[in-house]
Amino acid sequence: MELKEAIFGRRSIRDFNPEPVPKELMEQVLQAAVRSPSNSNRQPWEFLVISGEKLRELVERIGLAMKQEREKDQRRDLKTWDDQYPMPEEGARRSNHLMRSLVESATQAGIKASDFIQSNFRFFNAPCAILVLMDKGYGNGALVSVGAGIENLLLQAYDLGLGSCWMMVPLEFGEVFRAMFEIPEHKYLVSVIALGYPSDSSLNRFRSARDPLEKVVKFYD
Ligand SMILES: Cc1cc2nc3c(=O)[nH]c(=O)nc-3n(C[C@H](O)[C@H](O)[C@H](O)COP(=O)(O)O)c2cc1C
């Protein structure tokens, strides 16, 4: 596959077939992740690949915690907002637009809005979830290196015919992950990647919008 096709063809997948991901393919996507650049080649990422019985248990434990409103930590390790500075108006507009269009797309696919939101906590029924960690000792700045690794992983997955969704919503129940996989406090729960074969749900044809370059780029010469 051409690089351009991978970059522009990849999209978040939010409904998966139950078919498991062969270990060999998991290894290929992880090889792509660790090939990405990192600050001083420190390679600050760590990946926990969760599937089968362990994934079922994780989903069950998150479901239980959700019901009991227990262990919920809205603060999360890594916030997608800042307490000191307000969210830029255009950022809020883009995410509101995404949410509205996603819910609309789910409704068209016959999924109730509330069920769709809840399915985040089941990793959209993906047969594999990859939890991405980073030791806090690397410093916040190293998170950009981890992000580069995740993008490589998503593109490699797409090239292999797999679908993926980069996720943070399930980390609202970070304590469940920490307890189950014995993750110490000195590691950030960076993100979790849902991975598997896309179902033919129309939800997977959803195409997110982008603002035109003029909005985000300035040229100086
Ligand atoms: C850090 C991060 C966290 C995300 N968390 C979620 C999530 O929890 N649930 C979800 O459905 N999508 C999540 N996404 C996917 C974004 O909504 C998606 O990348 C964006 O809308 C652009 O769409 P695309 O991936 O199809 O190009 C996340 C993406 C990133 C980069």
Task: Describe the fold and architecture.
The protein is of the alpha+beta class and 221 residues long. The protein has one domain: NADH Oxidase (3-Layer(aba) Sandwich), CATH 3.40.109.10. Helix content is 39%, strand content 14%. It has seven helices and four strands; from the N terminus they run H-H-E-H-H-H-E-H-E-H-E. The protein has a four-stranded antiparallel sheet. Helix 2 (23-34) crosses helix 6 (143-159). The longest helix has 20 residues, at 89-108. The chain is globular, with a radius of gyration of 18 Å. The two termini are 35 Å apart. The mean pLDDT is 95.
In short:
The protein has 221 residues and is an alpha+beta fold. It has helices at residues 3-9, 23-34, 52-67, 89-108, 113-119, 143-159, 174-181; strands at 45-51, 128-135, 163-167, 187-196. The chain starts with a helix and ends in a 25-residue tail after the last strand.
Proportion of β residues?
A: 5-15%
What class, by secondary structure content? alpha+beta
Query: Given this structure, which CATH class is correct?
Result: Alpha Beta
What ligands are attached or bound here? Answer: flavin mononucleotide
CATH level 4 superfamily: NADH Oxidase
Specify the overall morphology.
globular
When the domains are counted, the total is 1
Terminal-residue CA separation: 35 Å
Instruction: List low-pLDDT spans.
Output: none
How many helical stretches? 7
Task: Show the helix and strand layout.
Blueprint: H1 3-9, H2 23-34, E1 45-51, H3 52-67, H4 89-108, H5 113-119, E2 128-135, H6 143-159, E3 163-167, H7 174-181, E4 187-196
Helix pairs in contact: 2-6
